[in-house]
Structure formats: C-alpha cells, structure tokens
Design goal:
InterPro entries: C2_dom, C2_domain_sf, Glucose_resp_signaling, MUN_dom, Munc13_1, Munc13_dom-2. This is C2 domain-containing protein. The chain is elongated. The N terminus is likely disordered. The strands form two sheets. The chain has a four-stranded antiparallel sheet, with no helix packed on it. A four-stranded antiparallel sheet has the order 3-2-5-6, with no helix packed on it. By secondary structure, the chain is mainly α.
C-alpha cells in the first residue's frame, strides 16, 4: 500500500502506434486460420513422440511449461534432501580433480558433467535448487548444459538427441549413487525408484550406444497412424474450436504429408538465419526500448532455436524462404489461442487457470512459433483483463492469473522479472492490463463502500490484497500511476463514503416523528444509532482505505455534523410540545438524553473543528442529578474488579491490618463517588441530601453484592477438596473415622486446616462494617434525614416528595429465615437424608437462596436467612432436596409460601410450619418491612447484610468442627467410660461399633472427673489446634465470635444427649442413667473452662447463655415421674403464655418490635444501644415446659406431648391475630 503516491497525470506512453498495430493484427485472425496453424503443430508433436523416434519426451506438460523450456522428467511430489547440492558439488569436484575411482571416462561425458558442475557453483543456482529440491529441475539443467556442450562440439542434430539421452541416463545413475553414498537410500527410497525407472527408460530409448566413438546408432520405433484418436493434442482441439473428430481427422489427413519434421527444421533454420541477421520479422530492433534489450532477446531466441533444432534428427539441409508452421502474425494468433483456451477452461470450471490440455497446446504452439516469454505474459494479461471486464474471469482468479503471468514472464523462474528488457508493445499491453485490473477492482471497492452499514458488509480486504499483490507491488506501478489519476480516485471514493453516510443518516432521521409524538427516547435512539454506527465502522475500518480514504472518519464527520444541528431543533420541538400539553419530561429519559448528547459532543470535538453548536448545560441544568444517579448505578460495577484483583492477603500483617485489598479498593471507590457530591459545591442542602440519599442507595446495593460475592468465595474455599476422592459415603462418616483414629490413638489428630485466605475473607466482612459505619458518621445520616423531613411535613419521616418519587411504586423487603424441618422423607439407603432447601420465586423462576447441606439427618436445623424485595403479593416455592454426590439430587418435599404485605404490616416476625407434599414439615420465620427512600434505610440495609454475612460465614466455619464435636460428645463415648476393658476395633463402621457396644457390660467402678475429662482429650486437642489455626488469620473480635458459635454447638450437642428434639413423634432415644448424666455435666464444666481459658476466650457472661441455663435446669426434671412432670407442665402454662406474648412483641416497646429491621441496623452505635436496652428490658425465662415435654416424649407420653404442642400453636396464632388487630388500630 505504501507504493501509492499522488502524482500529476501524465502520458508517458510514446508507442501507442505500435500498440495499435498489435491490436489491428489481432483483429485479422480468424478461428479457422488459427485452427489450421494449431493442427499443424499437433501433427508435428505427434510425429515427434518418443514411440516413433526412440527418444524421450520433447516437452513437459506442467503449468510452468508455457515458458520456453527443455524436456523435463516428472518425479511427482518427491523431493531431494536439502544436502543434495552440496553432495553433488563434492562428488563433481572429485571428478574434476580426477580423485577417486569413477566410471565416467569418456571425454565428452566428462565435459558435460563439468559444465553442469560450473553451473552448480553459481550461488543463486545452488540456492534455487536447495529451496525447490526438485529432482526434475536438477535433471533439466543438466540436459540444458549438455545440449550446449554438444552443440559446441559440433555434433550432428540427430546424434545430439541420442547423446543427450545417454548422458542424462549416466547423470541420473550418478545422482542415485550420490544419494546412496550419503545414506539417503531409505529416506529417499521412493525418489530413487523413480530415478531408476527414468534411467531405464532413457537407456531403452537410447539403444546401443558405444562410448568408443561417441556416436549412437538409430533404431526406428513405431510408425505413426495419423488417426485422430491416436493424436492426443489434435483430439483435444474439438471442445476448443467446437469441431467434431471427423472434421479434425479430415484436417489431419490433409496436412499429414506436409506437417513434417523437415518442415519444422526448415522453419527453425530460417528463423535462426533471420535472427542472426537481425531480419526476424516479428521482433526487430525498433520494437525494443534499448539495444541491450534487443540483444538480450536475440541471444535467448537464438539459443532456443538451436535447442529445438538439436531435438530433430531429420538432418535436412532444405532451405526455405517462408514459414510453414510459424503464422503470419504469431502475436495475434497467440492471443486468440490464449483467449480460446482460457475461455474454455473457465466455462468448464477447471481447478486451475489453465488446464493441462491448454498448457500443452499453448506450449507446443508458442515454442514453435518463437513467441518469447515476455509476449506470452503480456498476451495472458491482455486476455485476462478483457475477460475480467466481461465478468467471465472470476475476481477470485485474479491473483492466480497474475502469479501465472509472473511465472511465465520469468521463464519458469530461470530469469529475474525485468520488464525493461521486454518489447515495448508487450510492456504497454502489460501496463494497460494492470490499469484495467486496478480500475475494475476500484469499482468493486466502491460497490463495497455502498454496503458499509449492512450487518455483514462484503469484505474489502480481498480486493485490497489483490491490488497490493498484483498491482501496487508491480515493477510497472509507476507507469500505471501515470495513466491513472489516483488523487481523483481517492476523492471519488471519499465522495462515495460521504454519500452513503448521508443516505444512512436520512434513514435514521426519517424514523424520528415530526409531530407531537416526538419523545426523548427517539432522540436517544437516534444518537445511539449514530454512535453505534461510528463505533462499528471504526472497528471494521481501523486504517484508511488505500492509506488516503478514512472511511470511519468521513462517515463520522458527516453524521456528527448533521446531528449537531438537528439535535437542538429536535429538543426545542420536543419541549415545546410537552409545554403545550402541560407535561413534565421523564427524569430517566432526560438523564439518558443528556448523557447521550454529551457523548455525541465529545465525539464531535474529536473529529470536527470548532465548538459543538448545541449548548447542553443551558438546556439540562435542572437535570444535574443524573450525575448522582449514574454514580449510584456504577457503584456495583466496582465490586467485581476489586474482588477479582484480590489475592486475599493481609494489607499489612505486621501493623495488624488483617483485611485484604478488595474491601479497601471498594470503599476507596465508594468514597470517590461520595466526593463527587462535595465537589459540586451545591448550595441547596435539600438537593445535597437528595444526592446523598440517591448515591447511598447504590452504595447499599454494592455493599450487599460485595458481601454476597465474598461469601460465595468463602464457601467454595471451605469445601473439602477430597470429598470427590474419599471413599466414605458421606462427610459424616469421614469425620467419624477421623475421630475414631484420634480416640484409638492409631493416627495423629488432624484438625481442619482453615486457610489464611479463608480467615481474611471473614476479616474483610468485619472491616466492611467498620468502614461503612465511618461513612455513616461522616455523612451524618440522621442530619440528612432531618433536612429532607422538612421538605414536606405531610410526607412522614424519611420521605422525599418530588415529582420523580410521588408515583413510585411501593416496595417491600421480606426476610425469610429457614429454621428447621421435621420428619423428612428418607432418601438414602441408610434410612437418612442429606437435606438442603432452595427458595424460588414462582413469578421469575429465579432462585432466591439455598441453604447449606445437613448430612445424614431427617430433622435438620439450618437457621439461615434470605431476602426478597417485592412490589406486592408473591408466591415462593420452598423445596427440600437430598444431596447426592454420585448422581442427581433427590426430592424430599415441596411447599408453597405466599408473601402478602398486608399480612405483615406490623413488621412482626411470624413462624410458619409448611407441610411438605411428601412427608414432614418445614419451619420458616418471616418478617417484612417497607423499603423507603431514606439514607438511614440504605445504611441499615447494607450493614444488616454485612452482619448476616458475617454470622453465616462463622456458621460455616463452625460447621467444619461440628461433626467432630458431635462424635466426641456422644453416647458411645459415654459407654466407653461406663464399660471399660473392651478391646480395640479391628474395623470401624456402624455395624462393628454396634456389635462392639453390645458385647460389653456396664462396670460398677466409680468414675473420677479426671477419667471423664480424659475421654474427650482428643476433642480438647482438636479444638485447641483449630482455634490456634484461626488465631493466626482472624482478628481477636472475629476469633471470639467463632469460639462463641462453637460453644453453642457444644451446648446443643450435650443437650441432645439428655433430651430429644421437641416433637410428638416417637423417638428411639432413651433417658440417660445417673452416671451418664454426671458424665454430661462433667464434660460441660470442663468445656466451659476450656473455652473461657482464663479470660482469653469468650467471657463467662457469653458462655452462661440462655441455652446454657436451660441445660443446667434439665436435672431438675430428669428424675421426676411422668405424673409429676405433667403437673409441672400445667403449672407452667401461664409463663409459657407470657413467653409467646414476648415472641410476638405484643405490649413491648417499638424498639424491641423492630430489633431485626433494616432501620435498626443503620449504624453500629444504634445496634449496640439496642442490644443493651433489649437485654435490660426483656429477660426471657428458660423454656422449662419444653424441657418437660422432651422428657415425656422420651418416656413415650406422646399423646400428652402432642396435645400440649397443638395448644401452644393455637395460642400463638391467636396472639399473632391480636397483634395484627392492635397494629390496625394504630
């Protein structure tokens, strides 16, 4: 492409007269006269076939043979080794120096070999052979050099043919020996076999040839029949000239006696004489641009004629003054023949530009007609450009055509491409052909430009490639450039681009209404189309076309220039109609419109000089809030990059900064967004408060998303990597095996190795709470809310009455806590299930949440919370699944849940037992609160999400310890204390454990506290190692929370040893003996001291929780009789009523009623104060009745238990109804 230059138009062609002469000559040739001339050549070729003369082939029939060439063998795709030139040089060098033994003793043979050796020493020739590695080329050059040497020696033409064959056979034998001696016999086996076959053929064709006198005897071959069926070339003329075989046979019969070798030899001798005397009529000195060019042509032509004469053995001395085979105007005949062959092959859908038959015909004719390679190349170019304009030559074949022309012009690669040595008329034809190709391709490119806006426009690349490889890189490009006004070409292409762009803009603008229906979205869509079309063109056409026509830039200038004027008119038109209709434009529409027009303005400035005609700020000043809206929307986009770039390493562990980069980066971005408002220097405090409220909405969403992403990564990291490889059926069985090893002392205890990155993620959530609280303190959400409360006193607290929000649909935030399930369907072969719950919105089919899996449990407890925002009543599907690691998950049961804001208007948490469609039931707890456009609400929502995320993460970490705790604090461990002396298990599974337990008897040996504590020493070690691991990565505050959560698991596990879960279903659990109860509370005491750890762990206030106090009260009722327990239960009914009353918040202060709401989490200070006030205002009594009912269930008093549970449920429903009525009265 760099070859294109802007030049003045000129006309350096000074030989148009001669070119006209060539054209006129072409017009006089008829197909009939051409056929007669071609038929003569075919008959001559037939006569000279080896079968009739005993010699080898005269001409090759490959694609390159259209150039002047010597007879060449064909060895297929077999290549010589790359070392072949060097090996031949070495062996020929020994021959030249008479070193070593050699079969080549004849002086004439030796001269021919040494002549080839001299040729091989030429670096260019040696490099060409090394690159091509064609054995045919090596043999061909040997034949050529041998022919020249024989001509110098004065050999008769009849002898020369025979001697060349004999010498070639000797050379082939020499080449085979060279390959074998170098060790290529196996790798070049196929090539050697072909060379041997060719050698044998040459020897057979040569006959008996003695080296003593250097001459050969002639042995006649077969006799020609002149039957057209036997004349391959003549028979193939039929499709070209539309003649039948009979007509061709007739023509053959007429000329078979005259179309002889003697006539050919006479033509050649006449041509040789005329060339030597500068009288050859078709190529004389005046046809060339210089003496050197003519002399070059003359030398090559004489050499070619002498080579052809050497191939005839007639030894005729007949002299002739006219030509028999060479037509009157070889150039004209040749052009028509090329056109006929090329047209025929194109119509026959040939795979190549010219078929083998066409190549053979053209080669035979052009060689005999003495047409040089330059003329051949020019004729093919002339015909190709003509067929191209007639659309007969496909554009896809242009490159093949030029490549073929170049190959022909270089004489099979023997010569360099130098058109300065060509006849002037040939050069003119070639230049005009390039010019026609250029014009034709430019027209195609212009057509492609008209389709630049289509979805899949035609590619310009192939056309540029054609110009680059066929025209611009040509040595004649300077001459082409002189006859083609390239600046005008570029200007015309630019005008085409501009015209197409204007037409496309008209299509865009025509889609815009011109009446009162014009909407801001119409202008936005128009701008979008203009921008997208500009971006699309920029991607498609990154570089200027032909380095002078920037398509994308011209189109963009056209569109932006037109739109800059029309956009102001459209906006004025739009606002005038809205004002007439007393309508306010949509805030969102105007925000988008301003953004889009700013984008257009930025692009306008980039491509056009001057200022954007439309003053956007003056028109959109009241819509400046769109900056805040945009920032709020973009807030969530900062989350993913921050997390993706995080390596989850402490920012500065030495300084105690244990959080990672993601939380720091995200809150830095959030701080930058908040700074946008302060940088506005806005004087209206109401607007400022509105801006912060809007922005905090986006910040809240971003923080919630961050918490969700971090929790997801946290959960994935905690999944055991060896779950897929372990041979145990479940995680529970694996942990039991680990516990067995620890108890038995057969393997060292391996605590769960929490990764440091896991701890960092938990630290990040804690840090996010602190940073969010800092932002709240900086903005002072209470102050901002008070400013907005004064805007409209009728709006209520936190409400902002603007034209944009009065009609906004009310939204509700539901919090759904999946508590537990009972009596689930057993899906596994062990009679248990591995349940988890999914919540799905029926309207959107979107999954709201998914709990963790509780392994091997039919009465699982999840206690996990999820949120969903709705605009009205909606239905959810709660599905309990059984996890199966080896296949698809099984369905345990399904239930439906309706979320109706009317049923939750008092923000009271309500429990629902959902009956599953298979068996069992699911307990969910639901609360609801209305979403408000209040900065405090957004802070509260974000902080509550972070708090819940932290709790869930701690819960997941503690789950990793739960299985070991449950196994260590089990009835089996107690029995091992009560029944000492039992042997060690050989196998550890549920069957062997059962057999092992039943085979022992209870010992009456008293147990000391030390003995009891020693039984769970592995648990102490395990917890100690686990907490030590966590202490390395967690902050002290989070570490204490994890320990406190683990303590709750310990309490729950010990409680399960004493009591079954509260239900009216029969249980297999039996009451513990006094010794076993003593073991449980000894464990409780020692574990409490272990967790407290002299104040390094959780405080005693935390450890002595309500659950702990309830557990301590179990012995009070454990030894009472059934009747005593029933009486006590009746006495406790009043306290039970009060507890239920407290749970539904009837009669309690508003603060307690909303302790779990979003507004109660607006900052950490409020949360801390609420906890303290709630703790002082509400002291929940231990659930003594539940303890009694659990004991009675264990003793089989199921009817009584069921009756009391149902009474409590009815009472709870009644209190909930009263709560709703009380709320309605307010």
């Amino acid at each position: 492409m760099s070859a294109i230059r802007r030049k003045p138009v000129g006309d350096p062609l000074t030989t148009t007269r001669r070119h006209s002469r060539v054209k006129s000559g072409i017009s006089r040739v008829t197909e009939k006269s051409l056929f007669d001339q071609v038929l003569k050549v075919c008959v001559l070729s037939y006569r000279c076939e080896p079968r009739f003369r005993g010699g080898g082939k005269r001409q090759s029939r490959d694609l390159a043979s259209l150039a002047v060439s010597d007879p060449t063998p064909s060895f297929g795709d077999q290549k010589l080794p790359k070392e072949a030139p060097k090996l031949l040089q070495q062996k020929l060098n020994k021959l030249a120096l008479n070193q070593g033994s050699s079969d080549i003793t004849d002086p004439l043979v030796r001269r021919c070999f040494l002549a080839f050796y001299a040729l091989l020493l030429d670096p260019d020739f040696s490099r060409r052979i090394k690159e091509n590695r064609r054995a045919e080329d090596v043999v061909m050059f040997f034949i050529s050099s041998s022919t020249k040497e024989l001509a110098k020696s004065g050999s008769q033409p009849a002898e020369t043919k025979r001697l060349v064959n004999y010498f070639t056979a000797t050379f082939v034998k020499f080449l085979i020996a060279t390959l074998r001696e170098a060790g290529f016999e196996s790798s070049c086996a196929s090539l050697i076999r072909q060379l041997q076959s060719y050698e044998s053929k040459l020897v057979n064709d040569t006959g008996n040839l003695g080296e003593s006198n250097g001459s050969a005897s002639y042995s006649a071959g077969l006799t020609p029949t002149f039957d057209v069926a036997d004349i391959h070339l003549a028979k193939s003329l039929g499709p070209y000239f539309l003649m039948s075989d009979s007509l061709i046979q007739k023509g053959v019969s007429e000329i078979k006696d005259t179309a002889t070798e003697q006539a050919a030899e006479a033509d050649l001798r006449l041509a040789l004489d005329q060339l030597k005397q500068d009288r050859f009529p078709y190529y004389q000195r005046q046809y060339f641009g210089s003496d050197d060019a003519y002399q070059d042509y003359k030398n090559r032509a004489i050499e070619a004629v002498q080579t052809q004469l050497a191939g005839y053995g007639a030894q005729s001395s007949t002299q002739s003054t006219t030509y028999y085979y060479i037509p009157e105007d070889p150039r004209a005949y040749g052009r028509l023949l090329v056109k006929i062959c090329l047209s025929h092959d194109l119509k026959s859908k040939s795979d190549t530009l010219l078929s083998k038959n066409s190549i053979a015909i053209l080669t035979e004719c052009f060689n005999l007609w003495q047409i040089p390679s330059s003329t051949r190349a020019a004729l093919v170019m002339d015909v190709c450009q003509e067929l191209l304009k007639l659309k007969e030559l496909p554009i896809s074949l242009i490159e093949d055509s030029v490549s073929f022309i170049s190959h022909v012009g270089r004489e099979n690669g023997k010569r360099e491409w130098d058109t300065s040595l060509w006849p002037v008329c040939d050069r003119e034809v070639y230049v005009l052909g390039l010019k026609e190709v250029l014009v034709f391709v430019i027209d195609l490119i212009s057509g492609c430009i008209k389709s630049i806006y289509e979805q899949k426009p035609p590619s310009i690349g192939p056309y540029l490639q054609i110009l680059g490889e066929c025209v611009f890189c040509s040595s004649e490009w300077d001459r082409v450039e002189m006859i083609v006004d390239m600046p005008k070409v570029f200007d015309n292409l630019s005008l085409v681009v501009k015209s197409v762009a204007e037409h496309k803009y008209d299509e865009f603008i025509d889609a815009i209404p011109r009446d009162h229906t014009l909407d801001p979205l119409h202008i936005i869509e128009l701008a979008d189309r203009i921008i997208s079309s500009a971006e699309r063109l920029q991607k498609r056409y990154k570089r200027p076309l032909l380095e002078h026509v920037p398509i994308a830039l011209i189109a963009a200038k056209t569109h932006f220039s037109l739109f800059s004027v029309d956009s102001q008119s459209m906006f004025t038109h739009l606002m005038s109609h809205m004002t007439a209709r007393h309508e306010e434009p949509s805030y969102d529409d105007m925000t988008l419109l301003y953004k889009k027009l700013c984008e257009i303005r930025e692009l306008y400035v980039q491509v056009l000089p001057g200022k954007f005609p439309f003053d956007l700020e003056a028109a959109f000043v009241k819509y400046i809030r769109r900056h805040v809206e945009q920032s709020a929307t973009l807030a969530t986009s900062w989350v993913d990059p921050a997390i993706d770039a995080d390596k989850w390493e402490p920012m500065d562990e030495g300084e105690g900064i244990m959080y990672s980069s993601s939380v720091a980066d995200m809150f830095t971005s959030l701080g930058t967004a908040l700074a946008i408002i302060s940088e506005l220097h806005w004087d209206n405090p109401v607007h400022v408060a509105q801006f912060y409220t809007t922005l905090m909405n986006g910040v809240s969403v971003a923080v919630c998303k961050y918490a969700s992403r971090v929790f997801q990564l946290f959960s994935e990291e905690l999944e055991l990597e060896d779950d897929k490889k372990v041979k145990y059926k479940s995680r529970q069985e694996k942990w039991m095996a680990m516990a067995k090893n620890a108890m038995a002392g057969s393997a060292p205890l391996t605590p769960y190795q929490f990764k440091k990155t896991t701890c960092i993620k938990l630290n990040d959530i804690e840090t996010a709470q602190a940073k969010l609280d800092e932002i709240e303190a900086q903005l002072d959400s209470e102050k901002l809310a008070k400013v907005l409360e004064g805007v409209n006193t009728n709006a209520g607290p936190g409400k902002i009455v603007t034209k944009d929000t009065t009609n906004k649909k009310r939204a509700y935030l539901f919090t759904i806590r999946i508590v537990q399930a009972e009596n689930l369907k057993a899906c596994d072969m062990n009679g248990l299930s591995d349940p988890y719950v999914t919540l799905v919105d029926q309207a959107t089919r979107k999954q709201i949440g998914k709990t963790r899996t509780i392994f091997e449990e039919l009465n699982p407890v999840w206690d996990e919370t999820f949120e969903i925002a709705t605009g009205g009543p909606s239905w959810l599907t709660a599905t309990v699944w059984d996890e199966d690691s080896l296949g698809s998950h099984d369905l345990c049961g399904r239930a439906f849940l309706r979320l109706d804001p009317a049923a939750f208007g008092d923000f009271i948490a309500q429990d629902y037992w959902l009956d599953l469609d298979t068996q069992g039931k699911l307990l969910v707890n639901i609360t609801m609160e209305s979403e408000r456009d209040d900065v405090r609400f957004y802070f509260g929502k974000a902080l509550r999400t972070l708090v819940r995320c932290e709790n869930d993460m701690i819960k997941v970490m503690v789950d990793k310890l739960t299985a070991f705790i449950q196994y260590s604090l089990s009835r089996e461990t107690m029995k091992s204390l009560i029944s000492p002396g039992r042997g060690k298990l050989k196998e550890f599974n549920m069957e062997s454990v059962s057999s092992w337990l039943s085979s022992t008897s209870i010992s009456n040996v008293p147990l000391t506290p030390t003995m009891i504590e020693d039984a769970i020493t592995p648990l102490f070690d395990y917890l100690n190692e686990s907490f030590a691991t966590l202490a390395v990565g967690l902050t002290d505050e989070i570490r204490l929370k994890v320990m406190s959560r683990t303590w709750r698991v310990v309490l729950t596990t010990l409680t399960s040893l004493l009591l079954p879960r509260l239900s009216y279903k029969r249980t297999s659990k039996t009451q513990l003996s006094a010794k076993e109860v003593d073991i449980v509370f000894t464990w409780l005491s020692s574990l409490r001291d272990f967790f407290h750890h002299d104040g390094a762990g959780p405080s005693l206030e935390v450890l002595h929780s309500q659950q702990y106090q309830e557990l301590m009260r179990v012995p009070v009722y454990y030894d009472l009789s059934n009747e005593e327990l029933k009486d006590e239960c009746e006495k406790l009914s009043s306290s039970t009523f009060k507890a239920l009353q407290d749970k539904t918040y009837v009669g309690l202060p508003e603060l307690i009623k909303r302790k779990n709401t979003v507004m109660a989490h607006r900052n950490r200070t409020v949360m801390r104060k609420q906890k303290e006030r709630i703790r002082n205002a509400k002291r929940e009594a231990p659930q003594n009745e539940d303890i009694i009912l659990c004991i009675l269930r264990m003793r089989g008093e199921l009817d009584f238990v069921a009756r009391r549970i149902k009474q409590k449920e009815r009472l709870q429903q009644t209190l909930a109804t009263e709560s709703l009525v009380a709320k309605g009265r307010k």
